[in-house]
Amino acid sequence: MSSSKRRRRWLIALGVVAGLVVISAFATRTPSPVGHWDGAEGRDRFMAAYDRAFQDLPAVADAVDVRTDYGVVRFYRFAGSGEASAPLVLLPGRSSGSPVWADNMPSLLEVGDVYTVDLLGEPGRSVQDRPIVDDADQAAWLHQALAGLPEERFHLVGLSIGGWSAANLAIRQPDLVASLTLVDAVFVFDDLPLGTIVRSIPAAMPWLPKSWRDGFNSYTAGGAPVEDVPVARMIEAGMQHYQLRLPQPTRITEEQLAALDVPVLALIAGRSVMHDPEVAVATAERTLPAAAVRVYPEASHAINGEYPDQIAADIAEFLGGRA
Q1: What positions does the domain AB hydrolase-1 occupy (predicted)?
Q2: Beta strands in 214-298 (DSSP E)
Q3: In whole angstroms, what separates CA 161 from the centre of its chain?
Q4: Among 170, 182, 175, which residue's Cα sits nearest to residue 152?
Q5: What is the pLDDT of residues 24-35, one digit of tens each?
Q6: N or C: which end of the chain has fewer CB within 10 A?
């Protein structure tokens, strides 16, 4: 793979990590109970970057807005060539949206039909209009959104905080979940390291220079450069201009993991800074004996952009008879 292509894949993956550390979000709280923009100019800056980054995705078969009790959730449907009867639903990381999956889409569409979703309460084209106050609310809006799609069940593929969202749903309301693929999920197999929390605090301060946010994103992506690329500009704009009003996720317990009644594939980055990889692997192997646990030794937390084809191949193998 050429260095320029690898760099692009790293940058596409930055939606995994941008603004991930939820503790820092409370430093910029305002009285509004729902996520919102700091003004029209900031929203316009993000949306322009979002639209530019979206151009790297394949042709969209349909854009679907689903009304939930917590707001309107935006999905994009992509027609795949694979034979999976249940579509994949891709859940991105924090402070990002559908464009972060651009490099993953060609190989995932060979598995089956794909939906991407902009998480509710995050910068993107989903619009929160009611407070989300706890983990139960997080599961409720996602369940309602999936129930508004025409299919009956879904293979959830969750990246970083999207992995936590998928697991949280499967624990609380699993009836629509055919399987889980957790891609270096946070708050699932280990806690967030203190060093990462400390490094995230300056990145969460919107009045600080762009370089502080870029620096944190580069740290989580294994030191990859993050400037002057459409997806990176989108993520940075979301971090600066969108005010999150989401609860801090509760670490999923080992008892909850062991009680999951759906097939699980855990993909863990060997160089992730969002948990201790050795601890995460041990937890996954201990609590999910029926699950496939795959370690990508050289991957950073930006794993989805670094290894898109391998991830798709692992998902295809995992689904196997479930297709």
Answers
A1: 88-313
A2: 242-243, 264-269, 292-296
A3: 5
A4: 175
A5: 443 344 557 999
A6: N
At 36-93, the pLDDT tens digits run 999 999 999 999 999 999 999 999 999 999 999 999 999 999 999 998 879 999 999 9
156-172 burial string, b = 16+ CB within 10 Å, else e? bbbbbbbbbbbbbbbbe
Give whole-number Cα distances, 271 to 36, 112, 276, 296, in Å.
33, 30, 9, 8
Q: Give CA–CA dist 147/176, Å, rounded.
A: 8
Q: Using alpha carbons only, how large is the chain's radius of gyration in Å?
A: 18
DSSP label of 221: T
290 vs 52, which has greater pLDDT?
52
For the entire predicted model, the pTM comes to 0.88
- Quick one: 224 exposed, middle or buried, by C-beta within 10 A (0-12, 13-18, 19+)? buried
CA distance 153 to 214: 38
> What length does the chain have?
323
- In whole angstroms, give the CA distance from residue 30 to residue 39: 13
DSSP E strand boundaries for 17-70: 36-37, 62-68
Helix axes 230-241, 3-12, angle to 10 degrees: 30
Q: What is the model's pLDDT at position 9?
A: 46
Where along the chain do its domains lie?
A: 3-322
Count of Cβ atoms closer than 10 Å to residue 23 Cβ: 12
Tokens 């891609």: give the residue: 183
Exposed/middle/buried for residue 91 (C-beta within 10 Å: 0-12, 13-18, 19+): buried
Q: What SS3 class is residue 179?
A: strand
Lowest mean pLDDT among 25-34, 62-71, 122-131, 243-252: 25-34
Q: Which residues contact 150 (CB under 8 A, 6 or more apart)?
A: none
Asked if 224 and 11 count as a contact pair (C-beta separation under 8 A), the reply is yes
How far does the chain reach from its first CA to its final CA, in angstroms?
30
Tokens at 237, concatenated: 């704009």
